[in-house]
């Protein structure tokens, strides 16, 4: 083989297939050694690309380094030596392994070569069989590394697909649960026609108020939306005689009615990933001063979603007509909510509510 770089350039042009046992980049400033290496590698079935300097090798091979299977390089060469050559190769293709040849073997040279990722360190003179075995091992190592990378890539793609499929399945399951709950809410409103659309209104408006307060966390906003939508679902366990009663409830009937928060909490807790929404359902009748039910929580002990819903629920209940009374005018509703600031309601939430009250009046389902 000629050591003329042009001959190698022509060979580089055929990138479609690797010949024999592998494409080998060979660099040695000794022309006789370079020719000998070329003959030995060709005899053993390798396809050598030989250069008499590291500069020539880098200029010709660097753009397509990935097509090579191993590097055989002399260590001590004028200009760019073998150490610098390996450093450049390692930077461009960390998986391409180098076999170092040297007639000046020292511990310092060996350590420097190994630090640059030398796969083998052969001292001249060496046997042709020893060189062929070393190259074979380097080529096989590169092949295994490529297979491992392909496997990892395939595994990552497969994991990504499985994860997407799992998320899609969980989303469908989650939506199925929510759809079921919405159907129950709709059936509940059919039991109590005067509260028709109450749950959907409070759900929309609770989210609007939460955003007004600066809440941007999507998970929390979704919990508020769902908690508000399902806050009265526990009324499914309240007898019609109490739920539809037009007159004043007795103390015993009030206690039964009050249990709807805990009933609703148990129902919503049965839905996966609905813990925050369930807490809102349980706590939406708690009062800021601790006078509410079912646990007598106060202040920040009441989750923010329940503090928001408490005002929205009250607004909707007073503003819209029920079976036992007519709806109040907006001014009266605002006066009542303002009056209860600090007692039934969180003052900060009241402040935000008053700021968007005109939007609630204009909002349409």
Name the CATH class of the largest domain.
Answer: Mainly Alpha
The average pLDDT value, as a whole number, equals 84
Q: Work out the radius of gyration.
A: 39 Å
CATH fold name of the largest domain: Hypothetical protein af1432
CATH superfamily of the largest domain: Hypothetical protein af1432
Terminal residue distance: 83 Å
Proportion of strand residues = 5-15%
Q: Mind describing the biggest β-sheet?
A: 5 strands, parallel
* SS elements, strand count: 5
Helix and strand element order: HEHEHEHEHEHHHHHHHHHH
Shape, per Cα inertia axes: rod-shaped
Which strand order do you get reading across the main beta sheet?
A: 2-1-3-4-5
Structural class per helix/strand content? alpha/beta
CATH architecture of the largest domain: Orthogonal Bundle
Helix coverage percent? 55-70%
Number of helices: 15
Low-confidence blocks of residues: 1-7, 9-19
Give the domain tally. Answer: 2
What does this structure look like?
The chain is α/β, with parallel strands linked by helices and 365 residues long. The chain folds into two domains: 5-155, Rossmann fold (3-Layer(aba) Sandwich), CATH 3.40.50; 169-362, Hypothetical protein af1432 (Orthogonal Bundle), CATH 1.10.3210.10. The protein has helices at residues 5-12, 31-43, 54-61, 82-92, 107-115, 128-191, 198-212, 218-229, 240-243, 251-258, 260-269, 275-283, 304-319, 330-339, 347-362; strands at residues 23-27, 47-51, 70-74, 98-102, 118-123. It has a five-stranded parallel sheet, sandwiched between helices. It is rod-shaped and about 110 Å long.
């Amino acid at each position: 083989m000629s050591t003329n770089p042009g001959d190698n350039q022509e060979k580089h042009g055929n990138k479609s297939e690797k010949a024999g046992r592998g494409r080998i980049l060979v660099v040695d400033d000794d022309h006789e050694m370079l020719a000998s290496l070329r003959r030995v590698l060709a005899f053993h079935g390798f396809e050598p690309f030989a250069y008499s300097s590291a500069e020539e090798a880098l200029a010709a091979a660097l753009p397509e380094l990935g097509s090579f299977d191993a590097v055989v390089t002399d260590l001590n060469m004028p200009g760019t030596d073998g150490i610098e050559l390996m450093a450049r190769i390692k930077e461009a293709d960390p998986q391409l392994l180098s076999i170092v040849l040297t007639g000046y073997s020292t511990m310092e040279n060996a350590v420097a070569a190994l630090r640059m990722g030398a796969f083998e360190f052969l001292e001249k003179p060496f046997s042709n069989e020893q060189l062929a075995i070393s190259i074979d091992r380097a080529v096989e190592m590169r092949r295994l590394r490529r297979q491992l990378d392909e496997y990892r890539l395939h595994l990552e793609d497969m994991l990504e697909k499985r994860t997407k499929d799992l998320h899609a399945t969980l989303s469908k399951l989650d939506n199925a649960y929510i759809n079921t709950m919405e159907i129950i809410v709709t059936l509940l409103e059919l039991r109590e026609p005067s509260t028709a659309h109450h749950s959907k209104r409070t759900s929309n408006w609770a989210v609007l108020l939460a955003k007004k307060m600066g809440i941007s966390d999507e998970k929390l906003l979704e919990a508020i939306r769902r908690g508000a939508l399902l806050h009265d679902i526990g009324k499914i366990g309240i007898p019609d005689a109490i739920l539809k009663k037009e007159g004043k409830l007795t103390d015993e009937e009030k206690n039964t009615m009050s249990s709807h928060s805990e009933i609703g909490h148990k129902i919503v807790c049965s839905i996966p990933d609905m813990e925050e929404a369930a807490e809102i359902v349980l706590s939406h009748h708690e009062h800021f001063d601790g006078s509410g039910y079912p646990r007598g929580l106060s202040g920040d002990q009441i989750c923010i979603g329940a503090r928001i819903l408490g005002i929205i629920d009250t607004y909707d209940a007073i503003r819209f007509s029920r079976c036992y009374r007519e709806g109040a005018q907006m001014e009266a509703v605002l006066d009542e909510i303002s009056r209860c600031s600090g007692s039934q309601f969180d003052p900060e939430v009241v402040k935000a509510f008053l700021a968007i009250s005109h939007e609630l009046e204009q909002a349409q389902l």
